[in-house]
Amino acid sequence: MKPAPVKEIKQELKHRSQEELLEIVLRLSKFKKENKELLSYLLFSALDEETYITSVKAEVDADFLEINRNSYYFMKKSMRKILRNVKKYSRYSGKKETEIELLIYFLLKMDSFSPSIHKNKTLQNLYDRQLALVKKNISKLHEDLQHDFEVEMQDLSR
Hints:
The protein is mostly helical. It has helices spanning 6-14, 18-29, 33-45, 49-65, 72-93, 96-111, 121-138, 143-153. α4 packs parallel to α6 (96-111).
């Protein structure tokens, strides 16, 4: 079955009653974990972005503590998983400022990780790509926000 385009879905949703919409949303939340997480964000966290960012940072901290430090292979797999989660959570928000703040936090955690990620080419490349992405996204923001994020980036740039 081929999914309908967003425009058609939007038109169809306009013709549904509030009761039908509620049923559709609840049914949608049962199918994928990401759907449920997005609904949770929209219902409970969207109004308080700072608390949301703080909770994501706490999860990143917990994930970094669980990383197996025995080999760079396991470190790489774990850091990629953490990065996937950071990107997923920033996508829920849809705000560039949140994405940048979470990525900067991730990069700070990577930079201060022991053993150093800078001794492994794969992890260094992962770090460099995310750093370039953050710099690119910062340039798209308002000048005041650019300055604030560039101050935070001072610790990352070598």
